[in-house]
Design goal:
Chain lengths: 266, 168
């Protein structure tokens, strides 16, 4: 059985890896946010046309090339400190930095992985900021439960929404999305073009996703389910190139295993 | 069953019911920029019409090139699990095209599409793609077309045709 301190350490370290990867990617895309890049701030700042002049000026300064680069390097340092353990200060600063970076990329850089990254950072803030009031153990239990419920909800709803779509139930959507993936299209002779294989894979994914809340019954069940989750996200990475999804969701797995059959905050 | 287990069961049933009965969407300029706080949960959930960017160019004194489609494509490398900036950028560019398509649909009467931030960014994307192709054109043009799913490329609806733009 995983202890609370082990779960928190694992959670912080995998989350730190996820954030490091994201930040290094942002640094390597600096040319894209520069004056000659597609995502130049001179165009994008019109998204803030509704904001007051002071707010606009603050973001103008924050998104100057040099300031943005310095921000990313400072962020790397803060994230690295998570390997030694998080604190109220680092969790609030990294959370704020993440929100600023999301504004720089028009609200989202990589869809769902941005949301799960915010969930991770919110959880770090809950664990650290609530500790003086609730006690360290209760605060971190609440924090891990918050992540656990958000993660399981994402799997459940993702599976259920597929289940409601006829083209997922008959397997055609799987082939369609695999063809459209960044590493697609599928080869002409790919086994995923076989309708029976496509139906089998589709139903396996849907059923597995929909069973997410049941993992709370026991830690053994949760461990097996989470091992399948790692394999599932590796497949998603293989076909759709979504490395950030892999790290953002794998970060939540220690919280799921800890919460399954473990103590509840109430 | 404890009270907490019961509350969890009710919660999961509630979110499932929310999937079936969707309320009105929250919108607004700040909500757009902070939309990552709101979960979508519907990843690859259904097959719908896909907005795609098409572009063409003209070298001075020559006829126009054929229309080219922008589809994010890349070779797979296991190392991309740890660093995948270029491929993530390609996916972001497709997200931009999706957003432009949504913005065109929501454009109020009398508004100009050229004033949309998503249009201006898409224009820069086309220029970026042409530079990447070593096109060296005198002029270029782009379109947004809705490509029907699970069908041939011929079943498309054009929702935006840009004017012919000089390269300068």
């Amino acid at each position: 059985m995983i202890t609370l301190s082990e779960a928190v350490r694992l959670f912080e370290c995998i989350g730190a890896i996820s954030l490091l990867i994201q930040t290094i990617e942002f640094l390597s895309l600096s040319a894209q946010t520069g004056r000659e890049g597609v995502w130049t701030w001179s165009v994008q700042r019109k998204d803030l046309a509704h904001a007051n002049p002071v707010t606009q000026k603050i973001f103008d300064v924050l998104f100057e090339d040099g300031v943005l680069r310095a921000h990313l390097w400072l962020r790397l340092l803060l994230i690295s400190s998570l390997f030694l353990g998080s604190s109220s200060g680092t969790s609030v600063l990294i959370f704020t930095s993440t929100v600023v970076l999301l504004v720089r990329w028009r609200g989202a850089f990589n869809g769902g992985s941005d949301f799960m990254t915010l969930v991770f950072l919110t959880s770090l803030m809950i664990g650290n900021l609530a500790a003086p009031f609730l006690g360290t153990e209760t605060a971190w239990t609440v924090a891990l439960w918050y992540v656990c419920v958000q993660s399981l909800t994402s799997y459940l709803l993702s599976g259920a929404s597929k289940l409601l779509a006829g083209r997922w139930r008959d397997g055609r959507a799987l082939t369609y999305f695999l063809d459209g993936g960044i590493h697609g299209p599928l080869r002409a002779g790919s086994i995923y073009r076989n309708p029976r294989v496509a139906i089998g894979c589709s139903w396996a994914f849907m059923v597995w996703e929909c069973t997410a809340p049941l993992v709370l019954i026991s830690q053994q069940l949760a461990s097996i389910w989470c091992a399948i989750a790692v394999a599932f996200h590796l497949l998603v990475f293989r076909f759709f190139g979504l490395n950030r999804f892999f790290w953002a969701w794998v970060t939540t797995l220690p919280a799921i295993v800890y919460c399954a059959g473990g103590p509840m905050p109430m | 069953m404890s009270m907490t287990s019961f509350a969890l069961a009710i919660y999961f049933l509630f979110v499932l019911a929310g999937l079936l009965r969707r309320g009105r969407q929250i919108s607004g300029p700040w909500w757009f920029l902070l939309r990552s706080f709101l979960p979508s949960w519907q990843f690859y959930h259904d097959v719908g019409q896909q907005p795609r960017l098409f572009f063409r160019s003209q070298v001075a004194g020559n006829p126009w090139s054929d229309w080219q489609i922008f589809v994010p494509r890349a070779r797979f490398s296991p190392l991309n699990l740890f660093h995948n900036s270029e491929n993530n950028l390609e996916l972001l560019h497709q997200t931009l095209i999706d957003q432009l398509s949504t913005d065109i649909y929501a454009l109020p009467d009398g508004s100009k599409v050229e004033e949309l931030v998503s249009y201006q960014l898409a224009n820069r994307l086309v220029r970026h793609l042409l530079v990447r192709c070593d096109a060296n054109p005198a002029a270029y043009q782009f379109e947004i077309r809705l490509v029907a799913p699970l069908s041939g490329d011929d079943q498309t609806t054009t929702t935006l045709i840009s004017p012919v733009m000089p390269w300068k």
